[in-house]
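One chain is below:
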Amino acid sequence: MQDSFQQKALKEIEKLIKMIENSGLAVSKPSQKLYNYQVIVNSKNDQVKLLVYFGKKGIKTVLQGNSELAIYKELDELIFGAELFMHKPNDDVNFDEYIGTDESGKGDYFGPLVVAAVYANKKTLLELEKVGVKDSKLINDANIKILERKIKNIVGNNYEIVQINPEKYNKLYDTFKNLNKIMAWAHSKTIQNLLLKVNCPNVISDKFGNEKLITDELKKKNIDVNLFQTPKGERYTAVAAASILARSKVVDWFYFHTKELGFEIPKGGGDSVNTSAKRVIHQFDDKYLMKMIKFHFKNSKGIFKN
């Protein structure tokens, strides 16, 4: 029985390795320990250990590392969110048509926060599923751009994007003093803008905080919709499509500014972004850097301490 679980654990970690590599992260070859198989997943200067245990009670997948790291959160979503994407909880809704909203960039020190909204009905939902729309965290950057074009071809003009570049983001943070409040404002804005194009009573949003945050913002705008907020909202196809459109804008921002600076700008909030931020200051100045970062991140304490 032990050998059987060990074989299952090996197959499981091999499956996970392929999934991780497809997402664009670097992963080591699996090493066998006494009770598990394990790999190291790297992203710039940050790394997380992934273990698949085997024993008398079966196999178990575990992440080890700093849970605040962007790479940890990405892997947690990739590995444990994938199952939720395939198997819907009992309390899910089943709308014939709805607007899906999602965001990208909130965990990156550099770059914008982007929120997108996509309207879909029975016909377009089937078409989106056929072209492979799923949670953007499960897709590498090259395929994000390919899917962006396919989504826009399917939904036409029935989408909206709010891109909050760092300069505006920092001003909004001075006003709201809270990231979730900024996201609620942006989600409600995309819904408001899309409702000018389509008449749809249903909205599904990825849940990121207190449900009242979005509902209160919608009330300010006199918008009355049937809003369903749920964790792992990307399991809904239109929400997944919104996540792809939002992330595509983030990918574009990093590509453009990497070319502008002449060196690669890292995503996330680890040590590598501190090094790059100091390099920007050295190459330009701190005012230029302020146009590229989300200042309230704890990274700023070490970068602007002098």
Notes: Strands lie at 26-27, 31-32, 36-43, 46-55, 58-64, 98-104, 113-120, 159-164, 202-206, 226-230. The radius of gyration is 20 Å. Residues 2-86 form a domain with the Double Stranded RNA Binding Domain fold (CATH 3.30.160).
